[in-house]
Specification:
Rossmann fold; six-stranded mixed beta sheet; globular; binds adenosine-5'-triphosphate
């Protein structure tokens, strides 16, 4: 479980996050929404241990991430805007590199299975620089899942994906939930969020403007409510 307590992040005079409190439990799919600049990526990067909060804490399974080591990093999988892929390496070489980094013991089987899941098995030997945007996004999903993280952080996972790949991505969320993985997804796709997530958290100017179970939200009214929340 993740406990986020009084989390703030400032860049100079700018407040990217302000006193954010959130609890996330195993097997829960939570969607982060909010306008451009609301703080979604900042929050994901802090939970992924790629950025440090200015104040406050993220506690993962009882351990403050500020004091956590490599073990905690191995619990987290992050699909970021930044590709984290080596363009001159093939898809398979990229995944092998990350498998070593994360000490994946069954690397060959895991890589083959993930390339199959994301539909890239027949392009596994192509360098990533020859991949289309959607193909890179598929590979980034595979990279995020490679070490079987217990916390999956997805920053706009549907960006650039075609219909088949979107369904594949939905399947990944369903499987993750089934396996008790905690999923935190930032997206602008309102209708889709309401069907896929257990909870929706809306950020507005770095603050939590709404934290609600999707079962309690009326999808028909939500677009209006959302605009009021973030305006
Ligand atoms: P989007 O929907 O556009 O992806 P977001 O909700 O993910 O937006 P963030 O990327 O978290 O928003 O940015 C939140 C705020 O923090 C913005 O005002 C942004 O300009 C600022 N910010 C983020 N990273 C930095 C940085 N490295 N240096 C300065 N300001 C930053």
């Amino acid at each position: 479980m993740i406990e986020i307590r009084g989390l703030s992040k400032t860049y100079g005079a700018r407040h990217a996050l302000c006193e954010v409190d959130l609890d996330l439990t195993d097997g829960e799919v939570v969607t982060l929404m909010g306008p451009n600049g609301a703080g979604k990526t900042t929050l994901l990067r802090i939970v992924a241990m790629l950025a440090r909060p200015s104040t406050g804490a993220v506690i993962l399974n009882g351990v403050d991430l500020a004091r956590a080591g490599a073990e905690a990093r191995r619990l987290v999988g992050f699909l970021s805007h930044r590709s984290m892929l080596y363009k001159d390496l093939t898809a398979e070489q990229n995944l092998r590199f990350y498998a070593r980094l994360y000490r994946v013991t069954d690397a060959s089987e895991r890589i083959g299975s993930l390339l199959d899941t994301v539909g890239l098995l027949d392009r596994a030997s192509d360098p990533v620089r020859a991949y289309s945007r959607g193909m890179q996004q598929r590979l980034m999903l595979a990279r995020a899942l490679l070490h079987r993280p217990r916390v999956l952080l997805l920053d706009e996972p549907y960006a650039g994906l075609d219909e088949d790949a979107r369904a594949m991505c939905d399947g990944i969320l369903v499987d993750a939930k089934h396996d008790g993985v905690m999923v935190l997804t930032a997206t602008h796709e309102m209708a889709h969020s309401l069907t896929m997530a257990d909870r929706v958290v809306v950020l507005s100017q770095g603050r939590v403007a709404l934290d609600a179970r999707t079962s309690a939200i009326d999808a028909g009214d939500f677009a209006n409510d959302y605009h009021l929340l973030v305006s």
